[in-house]
Design goal:
mainly alpha, about 250 residues, 10 helices, about 80% helix, MetI-like fold
């Protein structure tokens, strides 16, 4: 248990130390020392807009992932009640899945305007596909013998869904939720860089336009920390709910 927490932290400290050595040895303009970036993060958090931007991006990721989860739940419910439905929707989903979420930004802006709505829409697109693929796999992994056994005991559609199908796909859904949240974070940053009044992506864009490399790293590192925190929280939920599977990160 402890090594699962300590080893990632040790890896981050090692990466920071290597970063500091490279910054001091090569003295590159594009690689400020970690201490300068840390000071910039503190300065921006207390006197700049880093905290507000992080909060805005977090809200958009949460909203987009919730929309993606709701859409996936509806599709999975339909597929559970009528199995051929999963094969029917797989065609359009596989056709649009290779399209990067950022490619939908112009349509989102035209439909919803430049603002939070367009960013949430892009996050929804980015978060939907990994979540759907995970849940669809879980749906296919439901054992027919369990379904037949439940039916032989008189289980109807509602009992079959609640006691057999949903418990079987829950571990896949939780893992897919972790993946979709990660996709949501890089989708929201990309969307905010294309046009948003606030957010970490906007901060990254403004720092790059102003050639402020230190603040650029501060915003990038904050994005990584926020995404990492979300992943660890969801992993804790996944592990507690699916402890019988012995899952690891």
């Amino acid at each position: 248990m402890h090594h699962e927490v300590l080893l990632p932290i040790a890896g981050c400290l090692l990466a920071a130390a290597l970063w500091g050595v490279c910054a001091s040895v090569f003295d590159m303009v594009l690689l400020p020392p970690p201490s300068a970036v840390a000071m910039a993060m503190v300065e921006q958090a207390f006197h700049g807009g880093l905290g507000e931007d992080a909060w805005a991006s977090s809200g958009r990721v949460l909203a987009g992932v919730c929309f993606a989860f709701s859409l996936t739940s509806v599709l999975v419910l339909a597929a559970a009640l009528w199995p051929p439905f999963e094969r029917i929707v797989s065609g359009p989903i596989e056709l649009t899945r290779p399209v990067p979420p950022i490619a939908w930004t112009p349509l989102a802006i035209m439909a919803l305007g430049v603002g939070p709505g367009a960013a949430v829409a892009i996050v929804t697109v980015g978060a939907f596909f990994p979540l759907w693929l995970s849940v669809a796999r879980g749906l296919r992994e439901v054992r027919k013998v369990h379904i037949l056994a439940a039916r032989s005991l008189g289980a109807g559609h509602a009992r079959l869904l609640a006691d057999v199908i949903l418990p079987s796909i829950l571990p896949y859904a939780l893992h897919g939720l972790r993946l979709s949240t990660g996709f949501g974070w890089f989708s929201v940053v990309a969307a905010e860089m294309m046009g948003a009044p606030s957010g970490l992506g906007r901060g990254i864009q403004m720092s790059s336009l102003n050639l402020d490399v230190t603040n650029l790293y501060a915003y990038i590192l904050t994005t990584g920390i926020a995404g990492f925190a979300c992943d660890r929280a969801l992993f804790a939920v996944e592990r507690s709910v699916s402890h019988w599977r012995g899952g690891k990160a």
